[in-house]
């Protein structure tokens, strides 16, 4: 039996039927909102993605899969991410220097200045 993949837009009251969770109009509205409110949505282009990957790769080459720890002692982690030393939310340059931390520490530190360079 074939499964029906068509569905109603998830925005209450919208009658549009499509394959995606949002109709084109509401998807465009959501994307515009994200671009206005999420600084990294605009600055995270291909060049930035490569720069972040290089920062993580350089950290792994120098230190192995170790997170420097933010608010806790350094610990092993295979899920390392690059983050800004001065958060964009605090006026940091989107192309500014990057530090490396595990995803958990990166999420915990939010927009504080406590990130250590790798």
Notes on the protein architecture:
The protein is α+β, with helices and mostly antiparallel strands. A two-stranded antiparallel sheet has the order 1-2. Strand 1 and strand 2 form a beta hairpin. The radius of gyration is 19 Å and the shape is elongated. The C terminus is likely disordered.
Q: Strands, helices and their partners?
A:
Elements: E1 7-8, E2 17-18, H1 24-37, H2 39-43, H3 46-63, E3 66-67, E4 75-76, E5 80-84, E6 98-102, H4 103-109
Antiparallel strand pairs: 1-2, 3-4, 5-6
Helix run count: 4
Strand content: 15-25%
The largest pleated sheet is described as: 2 strands, antiparallel
Q: Ends: how far apart? A: 54 Å
| Computed CA radius of gyration, to the nearest angstrom | 19 Å
Order of helices and strands: EEHHHEEEEH
How much helicity do the residues have? 25-40%
Q: Strand sequence of the main sheet, in spatial order? A: 1-2
Mean of residue pLDDT values: 84
Question: What kind of oligomer do you see?
Answer: single chain
Are there runs of 5+ residues with pLDDT below 50, and where?
A: 114-118
Shape: elongated
Beta strand count: 6
Give the class from helix and strand content and strand pairing. Answer: alpha+beta
Summarize this entry quickly:
The protein has 118 residues and is an alpha+beta fold. It has helices at 24-37, 39-43, 46-63, 103-109; strands spanning 7-8, 17-18, 66-67, 75-76, 80-84, 98-102.
Task: Write a concise keyword list for the protein shown above.
single chain, 118 residues, alpha+beta, two-stranded antiparallel ribbon, two-stranded antiparallel sheet, 4 helices, disordered C terminus
């Amino acid at each position: 039996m074939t499964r029906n993949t068509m569905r109603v837009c998830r925005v209450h009251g919208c009658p549009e039927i499509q394959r995606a969770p949002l109709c084109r109009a509401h998807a465009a509205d959501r994307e515009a909102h994200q671009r206005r409110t999420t600084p990294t949505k605009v600055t995270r282009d291909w060049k930035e993605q490569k720069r972040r990957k290089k920062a993580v790769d350089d950290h792994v080459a120098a230190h192995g899969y170790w997170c420097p720890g933010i608010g806790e002692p350094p610990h092993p982690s295979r899920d390392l991410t690059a983050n800004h030393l001065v958060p964009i939310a605090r006026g940091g340059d989107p192309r500014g220097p990057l530090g490396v931390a595990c995803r958990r520490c990166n999420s915990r530190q939010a927009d504080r200045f406590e990130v250590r360079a790798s």
